[in-house]
Amino acid sequence: MPATIVTHSFVPWQALEQHQTTLPTGSFGACANFVGSMRDFNAGDEVSEMTLEHYPAMTQHYLDELCGTTIAQWQLVDALIMHRVGIIRPGEAIVLTAAWAAHREAAFAACRHLMEELKSQAPFWKKELTPTGERWVHNAPSEK
Amino acid sequence: MSIDVKFFASLREHVGTDSVTIDAGRVRTIHDCWQLATQSADLPDNTLCAINMQYAKLDAAVEDGAEVAFFPPVTGG
Hints:
The complex is a heterodimer of chains A (144) and B (77). Chain A has 144 residues and is of the alpha+beta class. Chain A has a single domain, classed as Aldehyde Oxidoreductase, domain 3, CATH 3.90.1170.40. Chain A contains 3 helices and 10 strands. In chain A, the strands form 3 sheets. Chain A has a 4-stranded mixed sheet with strand order 1-6-8-2. In chain A, strands 7-5-9-10 form a 4-stranded antiparallel sheet, with no helix packed on it. The radius of gyration of chain A is 16 Å and the shape is elongated. Chain A starts with a strand and ends in an 8-residue tail after the last strand. Chain B is an alpha+beta fold and 77 residues long. Chain B has a single domain, classed as Ubiquitin-like (UB roll) (Roll), CATH 3.10.20.30. Helices cover 21% and strands 30% of the residues of chain B. Chain B has 2 helices and 5 strands. Chain B has helices at residues 9-15, 30-38; strands spanning 2-7, 19-23, 48-51, 54-56, 67-71. Chain B has a 5-stranded mixed sheet with strand order 2-1-5-3-4. In chain B, a hairpin with a 2-residue loop joins strand 3 (48-51) and strand 4 (54-56). The longest helix of chain B has 9 residues, at 30-38. Chain B starts with a strand and ends in a 6-residue tail after the last strand. The model of chain B has no long low-confidence stretch (mean pLDDT 97).
């Protein structure tokens, strides 16, 4: 049940495949995953770069705990979270969440839970670079 | 007898530093930590707090040796 903070660009599909090969063959019937990547626009402006800051010790602690509680709640075979920090450019992956379960209902629900909890609780902050300068990102509740 | 106080993101810019060590004998709650560490700077309404990497409220008690953090609403994912 790894939760990994990533400091460099990563290919989520490779990470997903790589992790799945570590799971016991035949132990799951469903894998649901979510990948969030950086847009080149936000709130009506072009965005050329983003810096993702975090609170390292708390972030790792929170994500580890989230993986553990999610696995227990949905009786998953495993769960995976990867999240970028540092300087990110449009098109690059920011986050990967995945859940492996016996059946799709648990996999879909658990994957969504991982993402929604991470978005609302994990101590990460985005600062984006626009043509008029840098600004901190504020989450809009309507943008899900 | 000390408490480490950390500030992140826009809160770090707001107070002008990323961390301050304060005397544990002079504080009782997280709010006291803010007052002492920032010399009573304005505390933004939406500020979140943590003690030892766990979310906590402003009136939560703080023990000697704790790490207290202040930060704005999170925007990861």
